[in-house]
Amino acid sequence: MPMLDVLRRRRRSTAAPERPFFHRLVGLLTEQGVGLVLDIGANEGQFATALFAAGFAGRVVSVEPHPETHGRLVARARRRAGWTVQPPIALGEEEGTAELFSFDRSDMNSLLAPAEAMDAAFQRLGAPAPVSVPVRRLDRLWPDLVGDGDRVMLKLDTQGSEAAVLAGAGDRLADVAVVQCEAAVTPLYQGQPRLAETIAAMAGLGFEPALLSAGHWSRRLGRQLDLDVVFVPRDPDPKGMKA
């Protein structure tokens, strides 16, 4: 493989996350009184690492289904107080098992099958290998993750299955102060919602956008692939506290 292709592929997965975005996010979490972040789709812990580096002083609980990636996540989390990792599981709408499409780039792993845009955007990505993973509903895990009085942020980066995670949260979504969703501008997976659909779905759940990331751009396609949207409840208490 030409060295230039190697460097381009590494750049997306290993580059430091956007510092201004994370500093603004920490400010938003402070305003909302959030002390616990549920990091769903943690991969190797890039999000939590950037959040702590930006000054977040609360706790992070990370969830990652892929066994090998989970091992690297656990090793990184051990270096930081206040950061714990659940056993390797995926979150979804129904409990059971599912096939995870596993790529040679772990940040592309998904419960959804790849769409044609995947091959167009990423040269030599390779065919995915199926990995069977357990799936849990968030509302059933909630009592083990969240304590009384915890103000919660739900961060979702599950490569297209974010809506299923939200459905599995059930009534517990009413206890969430901030939600961050990766939203597709150019869907890379079959059935993945587009940005406008994600915003509309979150509006239906009572949330509105408060912060956007720059996301990822594809030179090969000449268009945006995705971005992260941070949502808060409509008309939240400006002090970030429940009545």
Describe this structure in words.
By secondary structure, the chain is α/β, with parallel strands linked by helices. The chain has one domain: Vaccinia Virus protein VP39 (Rossmann fold). 31% of the residues lie in helices and 26% in strands. The chain contains eight helices and eleven strands. The chain has helices spanning 3-14, 19-31, 46-53, 67-77, 116-121, 138-145, 162-169, 195-204; strands at residues 36-40, 59-63, 83-85, 90-91, 96-102, 129-136, 152-156, 176-184, 207-212, 216-218, 223-233. The strands form two sheets. Strands 1, 2, 3, 7, 8, 9, 10 and 11 form an eight-stranded mixed sheet that branches. Strands 4-6-5 form a three-stranded mixed sheet. Strand 1 (36-40), helix 3 (46-53) and strand 2 form a beta-alpha-beta unit. Helix 6 (138-145) crosses helix 7. The longest helix has 13 residues, at 19-31. The protein starts with a helix and ends in a 10-residue tail after the last strand. Residues 1-16 have low confidence and may be disordered.
